[in-house]
From TrEMBL, chain A:
F(1)F(0) ATP synthase produces ATP from ADP in the presence of a proton or sodium gradient. F-type ATPases consist of two structural domains, F(1) containing the extramembraneous catalytic core and F(0) containing the membrane proton channel, linked together by a central stalk and a peripheral stalk. During catalysis, ATP synthesis in the catalytic domain of F(1) is coupled via a rotary mechanism of the central stalk subunits to proton translocation. Residues 44-92 form a coiled coil. Keywords: ATP synthesis, Cell membrane, CF(0), Coiled coil, Hydrogen ion transport, Ion transport, Membrane, Transmembrane, Transmembrane helix, Transport. This is ATP synthase subunit b. Pfam families: ATP-synt_B. Belongs to the ATPase B chain family. The keyword Transport applies. F-type ATPases have 2 components, F(1) - the catalytic core - and F(0) - the membrane proton channel. F(1) has five subunits: alpha(3), beta(3), gamma(1), delta(1), epsilon(1). F(0) has three main subunits: a(1), b(2) and c(10-14). The alpha and beta chains form an alternating ring which encloses part of the gamma chain. F(1) is attached to F(0) by a central stalk formed by the gamma and epsilon chains, while a peripheral stalk is formed by the delta and b chains. It comes from Streptomyces humicola.
TrEMBL record, chain B:
It comes from Streptomyces humicola. InterPro entries: ATP_synth_F0_asu, ATP_synth_F0_asu_AS, ATP_synth_F0_asu_bact/mt, F0_ATP_A_sf. Keywords: ATP synthesis, Cell membrane, CF(0), Hydrogen ion transport, Ion transport, Membrane, Transmembrane, Transmembrane helix, Transport. It is found in: Cell membrane; Membrane. Belongs to the ATPase A chain family. Key component of the proton channel; it plays a direct role in the translocation of protons across the membrane. It comes from the Bacteria. Gene3D superfamilies: ATP synthase, F0 complex, subunit A (1.20.120.220). This is ATP synthase subunit a. The chain crosses the membrane at residues 45-64, 100-125, 131-150, 196-216, 222-240. It is a multi-pass membrane protein.
Length: 183, 268
């Protein structure tokens, strides 16, 4: 049996041919060497670069998007602030206006009061002056009248004055009497 | 030139009484193209060298100056590379598999192109149907498997990884240890080589069988119809072989990655 197998070695397909084995190994090592050392690392690098480029592009787009969003937010914020500011200024102006109006009104009131007071004072002064003038006038007229009636010129100032005073005192006393009787 | 082709070329037909030149192991033996110091250089070796040049040449053309926006050739190469890197290495081994992508890619394309030689005119012989070529590759896978097993787990852990199964009943432990050892250390590389070899061997045998039969039966008689049927079958088998060639290269690479994965993983 063994001799039979030995003689048939060339025909046994399960006995690997040594030269073929070596050639096969060499060929594979060359394939593996070139692919593993140079070509596949090459393409691996390129694939990674491509992924980076694509992801980088996406990243850049995202960044731009974020930038745009942020700018929009800022713009909106500024707009809101401007509106707020405008509203504040309007409000302030309105308040100031109200204050000014109130002040003006007060001033007007004050001036009116002052004018009225001045008027009153003037009236009082006038009244006094009128009273004095009137008293003198009434005295003169009365004296004049009395002089004509009595026929005696009462030109003597002292006497004249005395008579007038007495007359007026009488008038006042009478008035007091009537007043006291009335009360 | 093998015996049957000589017979076929000499015009041996069914009525010539020269007997059917049945293809056999002689279909896989070639006379040396040349010999150097008693070492014969045969057609399968030439095919292996040509396949090596084809694989290297293709990937050189595709990947030597890779561009960010790939050309057609680079795109085809990338599809091939991604097929191994994603569908096999990542899928089976995971993230750790990235390191073994060049090894697996080399195996896949070298084996595939050698298989394809089966149906390339003038070549018409799969180098992988010579046992030495699958053996060479299976040997490298086995060495890688063993190396990674002991490198990852140390000597004791490596041995345990190869032979030990957790939670076994004590009485059958020795048997299982023996079986595991045989399976992982002996059967795995052997079947890896034989599976590829036998598929390509049988495929080539079938194509040769139907081709020779078609020629042998081609006579001005009713046999011509059978010759036609035989020719159709040869053509059909050729088409079928295209699928088998890819599938066997894929399975070989897949199993290699499974072994590597087994060597790398924790526990057994």
């Amino acid at each position: 049996m063994l001799t039979f197998l030995a003689s048939e070695t060339a025909q046994n397909p399960l006995v690997p041919d040594t030269t073929e084995l070596v050639v096969g190994l060499l060929c594979f090592f060359i394939v593996f060497g070139v692919l593993g050392k140079k070509l596949l690392p090459n393409i691996q690098k390129t694939l990674e670069e491509r992924r980076d480029a694509i992801e980088g592009g996406l990243e850049r787009a995202e960044k731009a998007q974020a930038e745009a969003t942020r700018t929009l937010e800022e713009y909106k914020a500024q707009l809101a602030e401007a509106r707020h500011e405008a509203a504040r200024i309007t409000e302030q102006a309105r308040e100031q206006g109200a204050v000014i109006i109130a002040e003006m009104r007060e001033e007007g009131q004050r001036q009116r009061d002052a004018i009225i007071a001045a008027g009153h004072a003037q009236i009082e002064a006038d009244r006094r002056q009128v009273t004095v003038t009137l008293r003198q006038e009434v005295g003169r007229i009365a004296t004049d009248l009395a002089g004509r009636v009595v026929g005696e010129s009462l030109e003597d100032a002292a006497r004249q004055s005395r008579v007038i005073d007495r007359f007026l005192d009488d008038l006042e006393a009478k008035a007091d009497e009537t007043q006291g009787a009335a009360t | 030139m093998s015996a049957h082709t000589l017979l076929a070329e000499s015009g041996c037909h069914i009525n010539a009484h020269c007997g059917f030149p049945a293809p056999g192991l002689n279909s896989f033996d070639f006379k040396p193209i040349f010999s150097i110091g008693g070492i014969d250089f045969t057609k399968p070796m030439l095919l292996a060298v040509i396949c090596m040049l084809l694989v290297v040449g293709f990937f050189w053309a595709a990947f030597a100056k890779p561009k960010l926006v790939p050309g057609k050739l680079q795109l085809v190469g990338e599809i091939g590379y991604n097929f191994i890197a994603r569908s096999i290495a990542r899928e089976v081994i995971g993230k750790k598999g990235d390191k073994y992508v060049p090894f697996l890619t080399s195996i896949f394309f070298f084996v595939w192109i050698m298989n394809i030689m089966s149906i390339i005119p003038l070549a018409q012989f799969p180098a992988t149907s010579r046992f030495a070529f699958p053996v060479a590759l299976a040997l490298l896978v086995w060495i890688t498997y063993m190396f990674l097993t002991f490198k990852t787990h140390g000597f004791k852990g490596g041995v345990k990884n190869l032979v030990w199964l957790e939670g076994l009943p004590k009485p059958i432990t020795p048997l299982i240890v023996l079986l595991e050892f045989i399976q992982n250390v002996i059967t795995r590389p052997f079947t890896l080589a034989v599976r590829l070899w036998a598929n390509m061997f049988a495929g080539h045998m079938l194509i040769v069988m139907f081709s020779v039969a078609a020629w042998y039966l081609l006579t001005p008689s009713i046999m011509a119809a059978i010759a036609g049927g035989s020719f159709v079958l040869a053509a059909g088998m050729t088409a079928f072989e295209v699928l088998i060639q890819f599938l066997q290269a894929y399975i070989f690479t897949l199993l290699a990655s499974i072994y590597i994965s087994g060597a790398l993983e924790e526990g057994h």
